[in-house]
């Protein structure tokens, strides 16, 4: 009977030791991997359809957390994870969508697929002060 009690006592100590060590395990340190940076791109976007098109295109880019186009200033602000993408990649994504990105012109084929209201050469936009 003593050996039976000793066995259960040893088992109880073993189980309680497991729980004690589980509670004192080191906690995960916050890493800089999840940190985001912001990047601004001057675009050739001219209307709200451009805004919707660019913001949606940026949502599909790897590492992009958020994108917002200010139509009057034509500036696209992108929050992104630098461990997943780069400003050059984001600029290229804007060009592939059909818009100029900073001093780099849009891809011709993508620009041709834009609706007429989104083209920077549209007379409607050039009369109102847009490019």
What does this structure look like?
By secondary structure, this protein is an alpha+beta fold. The protein has one domain: Alpha-Beta Plaits (2-Layer Sandwich). The chain has 5 helices and 3 strands. A 3-stranded antiparallel beta sheet has the order 1-3-2, with helices on one face. Helix 2 crosses helix 3. The protein is rod-shaped, with a radius of gyration of 28 Å. One of its GO terms (molecular function) is metal ion binding.
SSE blueprint:
Elements: H1 2-23, E1 37-42, H2 48-59, E2 64-70, E3 75-80, H3 87-97, H4 108-112, H5 123-127
Antiparallel strand pairs: 1-3, 2-3
Examine the secondary-structure arrangement and name the CATH architecture. Answer: 2-Layer Sandwich
Percentage of residues in helical conformation: 40-55%
Q: What count of domains describes the coordinates?
A: 1
Shape: rod-shaped
Which value, in Å, is the CA radius of gyration?
Answer: 28 Å
In brief:
Residues 1-22 form the signal peptide. The chain is of the alpha+beta class.
């Amino acid at each position: 009977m003593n050996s039976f009690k000793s066995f259960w006592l040893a088992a109880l100590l073993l189980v309680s030791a497991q729980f004690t060590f589980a509670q004192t395990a080191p906690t995960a340190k916050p890493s800089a991997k999840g940190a985001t940076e912001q990047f601004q791109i001057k675009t050739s976007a001219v209307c709200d359809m451009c805004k919707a098109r660019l913001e949606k295109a940026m949502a599909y880019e790897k590492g992009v957390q958020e994108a917002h186009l200010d139509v009057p200033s034509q500036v696209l602000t992108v929050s992104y994870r630098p461990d997943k993408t780069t400003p050059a990649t984001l600029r290229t994504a804007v060009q592939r969508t059909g818009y100029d990105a900073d001093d780099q012109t849009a891809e011709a084929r993508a620009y041709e697929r834009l609706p007429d209201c989104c083209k920077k050469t549209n007379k409607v936009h050039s009369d109102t002060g847009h490019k």
